[in-house]
Write a structure and sequence with these properties.
mainly alpha, 93% helix
Length: 90
């Protein structure tokens, strides 16, 4: 009984107060860091998906441009042939 009385008589136990305050704050900070990291990861994944879609769209655009260039070349040849025919006739 005297040990309990001496402990209470010695004043405030700052170690217990610090542990009881810092430990929950540390747990809350860790949980907050995990939540922030999770949402950043989700945002990064969404950006990666959007970038993949953009790359696919860019590849399709290049393919379409090459196809159009081929068609334009054929059309140019036909126009030259018509112009040549008109020069020969007229």
């Amino acid at each position: 009984m005297t040990a309990t009385h001496v402990l209470a008589a010695s004043g405030t136990n700052y170690t217990a107060i610090i542990i009881s305050v810092v430990l929950p704050l540390g747990v809350v900070a860790a949980i907050a860091a995990i939540v922030v990291a999770y949402f950043r990861l989700q945002a990064h994944r969404a950006d990666a998906v959007a970038m993949a879609n953009y790359r696919k769209l860019a590849e399709e655009a290049v393919s379409n441009q090459q196809e159009l260039l081929g068609q334009l070349t054929k059309l140019t040849e036909k126009v030259r042939a018509v112009e040549q025919l008109m020069r020969e006739v007229g």
